[in-house]
TrEMBL record:
<dbReference type="Pfam" id="PF00583">
    <property type="entry name" value="Acetyltransf_1"/>
</dbReference>
<feature type="domain" description="N-acetyltransferase">
    <location>
        <begin position="1"/>
        <end position="172"/>
    </location>
</feature>
<dbReference type="InterPro" id="IPR016181">
    <property type="entry name" value="Acyl_CoA_acyltransferase"/>
</dbReference>
<dbReference type="InterPro" id="IPR000182">
    <property type="entry name" value="GNAT_dom"/>
</dbReference>
<protein>
    <submittedName>
        <fullName>GNAT family N-acetyltransferase</fullName>
    </submittedName>
</protein>
<keyword id="KW-0808">Transferase</keyword>
<dbReference type="GO" id="GO:0016747">
    <property type="term" value="F:acyltransferase activity, transferring groups other than amino-acyl groups"/>
</dbReference>
Amino acid sequence: MEFRWLSRKELSLLKEIDRKELVDEVYYIRNHELRLVKEYYDIDGWLESELALYTQRLESIFDRDGIIIGAFEKDHIVGLVSLESYLINGRTMKLDMLYVSHDYRHKGLGRSLVDIISQEANELGAKELYISATPVRNTVDFYLRLGAELANPPDIYLFELEPLDIHLILPI
């Protein structure tokens, strides 16, 4: 597996990451606690509108001197992680995106990408990562296993951007 910073022209490689996933449980925050709810979603891949927005988001992060790292297997991208370039509260950086292709999940790739971006954030002065995670059980449980906890309270601005997400803090 090769990990490397992506150039701006490579940000469109995001579309090659296989997003498919069967979801049967999602988290909601109730009384400041995580609550699992049965909901079913069959995520077959990227919606074109969503992909365009996420690619623009990556371009914006890149243009603000953020860090975007790809994981490659035989010159094919299988994972991506991005980090905003600024500190929140003088100690926190936002892990903006983390995607791992379907066939590469549960093999340590996500953890490796988080470890790499955590090291980058630490070198820039961060002590923790802010994560606005999709409420899918697999995603939230992944971050919790890494040691993340509910952001209490969540960052007001970031919460307004993604109020349905689960907002977490991961010490690094």
